[in-house]
Amino acid sequence: MRILFKTSYLDDIRLFQHEGQVLWYSLLALAVLAAPWLLPVFYVGELTQIFILAIAGVGLMLLIGYTGLVSLGHGAFMAIGAYTNTYLITKGVPFLVAFPLAGLAALVAGIVIAVPANRMSGIYLAIATLAFSQIVEQVIVRWEPVTRGFQGMAVPPPDLLGVPLTQGWQLYYLALAVLALVVLGAVNLVRSPTGRALVAIRDSEVSAQSLGVSLFRYKTAIFALSACITGLAGALLAHRMRFISPDAFNYLMSVQLLLMVVVGGLGSIHGAILGAVFVGALPQALAIMREYLPSAIGRTPGLEPGLFGVVMVLIVLFEPLGLYGRWLKIKALFDYFPLYRRATFKRQRSYLKTERVR
Amino acid sequence: MVEVFQLLVGGIAQGCVYGLIALGFVLIYKATEMVNFAQGDLMMLGTFVAFSCIGTWGMNYWAGLAAAALAMAAFGYLLDAVVLRRIIGQPQFAVVILTISLGFLFRSAAGFIWGHETLNFPDTPFTNRMSDVGGVILSWEHLSIIFGTLILAGLLYLFFNYTRLGNAMLAASQNQLAAYYVGVPVKHINSLIWALSAIVATIAGVLFAPISLVEPSNGFYGIKAFAAAVIGGFGSLLGTVLGGLIIGVSETLAARYLPPGFKEIVAYLLMLVVLMLRPHGLFSTLQRKKV
Question: Is there a contact between B107 and A305 if contact means CB atoms under 8 Å apart?
Fold first, then answer.
């Protein structure tokens, strides 16, 4: 068991709490940097996919996990980012300009939805964002001069200062760099006064307001930021898929993003990334499992969504804190061995908490 | 003019279906504050069960409907008693995620059992029968939906106002703790409400099946029904059915008079407008906490 001796209040918000963390995170950084040399091309592609999902996951985590605003429409922001980026690149705009512009477009869309959304709460917000994503999907289907409707668009490879990034490992490093920047930004945001204000809003809007937190300003800002990050992830995802069509970013995409942050564990950046690893790796794991199942079951179409559902139900029922919560429990078990008490992580109140009064 | 009436009848029939699905949401929400994103999938499952009863096992239409409703009632009861009751006390979006996942599960299970192809619902007593009222051709399938909804709404009204069980459900939905103190078995009542909601969903599905088709993705009608529930305010049963009618009629009119694409989004546009004007629905029961 490690005892941290804190001599200043700033110790509480240091990026790395102790040397052990520095060591492990450096090893992780080395591992992901070396991965393209060590892994087959296929797995490099899968890792790229996971990184891109993780970017979107961090964006959504800031909104759901830290501010408590549930969005069922983040697939729409991904779509806006992907289509803006692709449209600009096909018009000859360099990637380094188109990519931030894609984020900006999603950010503006985020503000547009955030201003009315500010007055809603809980379930109404979730449903309103769901409606927003349906509308965006229809706009993409019908706005054929720009989006080519159901025909879809081929996505040219991104270019960096005139050098086209056509290889898988190049896209891998691009996604990794964006992910690193986004995670660093998110971690710094969360430990800043702004991040504390967001958490205060999540825990009690009334208390946050009475402490001088402007609900309107913070909610709009975090909605816009979250949409922007998700839009950037959408732009990268377009490059990874090389072809985009309206049904790539439908309701199921939004649900997948939501599941990601919940499986990972709400209220932690680690959770967003663990969730992305889980959601990104699950289809592969299922594909491998299929080989070992009897062919009557293994060959059924639509098996993936079903198993996805089963896994989700089990996680929500038995591990509401998500994968990161499970990790914390395991860590606590070893830290306090043999004094670990199951009640440490037990929820204290387990009756129906009404949201009709707020 | 005749054309408008013709469209209105179709729209009202469609709206009744949305209203009935939304009614299921609202029943559950009022009682347990759970928002059931799998309500559309419950409807889909109910339709498939009725399809098996009537089409495969050759039951009479009414007997098949009753059997499917009973089976789904048992399913709904167990769903609450075994799965959903466990997460009471967790934040509301845990329920959202749980029911979304259940929806995935149901869709996949339906595809596994009944296949992913679209099926034609077997002939009902209403198939291929028309009435001509002043030049407006009324198909009996549409009429059956409209009258079915009216009868069901009437029965629910009588049930909630004139039976002990209905009163207990109202009590539990208004204040669980108080209802518990005066002897209402709240857990049992909540599960019964899930059963009731599953019955409503099944009836909606069976009435709707002749004019839609039967396939696992029918569950997505549930998303449209949300719009109905929101416009109705997630509170009053009458408001919900009216919300469904508004959506059904405007959707049909949009399909005829507005450019393509509006049919799909008019429900959501209406809902967003309502949410902007009244963020908690038209007839909401939300109140502000006193600190």
Answer: yes
On chain B, the residues whose CB falls within 8 A of the CB of A70 are 93, 96
Nearest to A126 among B96, B107, B271 (CB): B96
A189 residue type, one letter: L
What is the rounded average pLDDT of the residues A297-316? Answer: 75
Q: What is the DSSP string of A153-175?
A: EE-PPPEETTEE--SHHHHHHHH
**CATH for B2-277 (1.10.3470, 1.10.10, 1.25.10, 3.40.50):** 1.10.3470
- pLDDT score recorded for residue B291: 47
Question: By CB neighbour count within 10 A (0-12 exposed, 13-18 middle, 19+ buried), where does A212 fall?
Answer: exposed
Amino acid, single-letter form, for residue B227:
A
Residues A179 and A85: their CA atoms lie apart, in Å, by 18
The interface residues of chain B toward chain A in range 160-179, judged by CB-CB distance below 8 A, are 176
CB–CB contact B268 A134 (8 Å): yes
- Other C-beta atoms within 10 Å of A238: how many? 27
Locus of tokens 């399938």: B141
Nearest CB to B261 within list A138, A255, A303:
A138
Q: Is the Cβ–Cβ distance between A274 and A264 less than 8 Å?
A: yes
**How close A140 gets to chain B, by Cα (Å)?**
10
Backbone region of residue A265 per phi and psi (left: phi > 0; alpha: psi in -120 to 50; beta: other values):
left
Lowest mean pLDDT among A106-120, B45-59, B76-90, B133-147: B133-147
**A132 lies within 8 A of chain B by CB:** yes
Contact A316 B276 (CB under 8 A): no
From B116, B269, B286, residue closest to A356, measured CB to CB: B286
Which residues have a Cβ under 8 Å from the Cβ of B58 and sit 6 or more positions away?
A: none
What pTM, to 2 d.p., does this model score? 0.85
pLDDT at A107: 93
Is A235 exposed, middle or buried, given 0-12, 13-18 or 19+ CB atoms closer than 10 A?
buried
> Of A125-129, B4-8, B74-78, which one has max mean pLDDT?
B74-78
DSSP letter (8 states) at residue A17: S
pLDDT tens digits for range A149-183: 777 787 788 877 777 777 778 888 889 999 999 99
Question: Is residue A193 a contact partner of residue A184, using CB atoms and an 8 Å limit?
Answer: no
Q: How many CB pairs under 8 A join A and B?
A: 155
CB of B38 within 8 Å of any CB in chain A?
A: no
